[in-house]
Amino acid sequence: MRSPSESAEAQREDYRNQKGKLLLREQTANLEGVQKRCFKCGNEKPLTEFYRHPQMADGRLGRCKECTKQAVAARAASPDGRERIREYERIRFQFASRKAAVVRYQKKRRQQDPQKYKARTAVGNALRDGKLIKGPCEICGDPKSQAHHHDYGKPLDVQWLCFKHHREIGHGQIVGSLITK
Q1: How far apart are the C-alpha atoms of 21 and 124, rounded to whole Å?
Q2: Which DSSP helix (H) or strand (E) runs through 30?
């Protein structure tokens, strides 16, 4: 159970989040119909199709969301870009606020699906204790594999898959490679 001061702080935080969402909704409603031209693609789009940026005169970035996403992906795909991102994330994680955010996220995830958390923990403990042996990917033979659960109710009944096959077969996602040589 939370102490009274923790409970009050949690209530204040909830209030701030709700107030922020309401203000954002109101601001977005006022922007409907307003158009802006993207300097990258040259298309005129609604102002809501541009990311917010406090240093711009109209409060929005000069390039549309689609062009911004493409630029970020291109920068991340370059070898120099990947290294800069890695360094940025390493420094960013040193801040106490970032560490606290990660802890909050993990706690929320564990509360949302406790059976999944227990199954993952059981696999980790079984590997540590030698009750379960990590095998190579069952599809391609890659020694770097992950445990995939078909049923979280059977925590030690896992299929060993590499990252790519785990995402594609286990979760129906398409994995593209950013690594270029």
Answers
A1: 39
A2: helix 4-31
Q: For residue 3, which phi and psi values (nearest 5 degrees)?
A: -75, 160
The rounded distance, in Å, linking the Cα atoms of 116 and 108 is 13
Residue 121 has pLDDT above 80, yes or no: yes
The alpha carbon of 115 is separated from its chain's Cα centroid by a whole number of angstroms, namely 21
Cβ neighbors of 115 (< 8 A, separation 6 or more) are 152, 153
> Residue 58's pLDDT is what?
83
Q: Tell me how far apart the alpha carbons of residues 51 and 159 are, in angstroms, rounded to a whole number.
A: 41
What backbone torsions phi and psi does residue 82 show, to the nearest 5 degrees? -60, -40
Q: Give which of 138, 143, 123, 132 is closest to 170, Cα–Cα.
A: 138
Q: Would the pTM of this model clear 0.70, i.e. be above it?
A: no
Q: Decide: 61 and 47 in contact? Cβ < 8 Å.
A: no
Q: Which residue has the higher pLDDT, 181 or 41?
A: 41
Q: Write down how long the chain is.
A: 181
CATH architecture type of domain 34-77: 2-Layer Sandwich (3.30)
Q: Taking the CA atoms of the chain, what radius of gyration do you get in angstroms?
A: 23
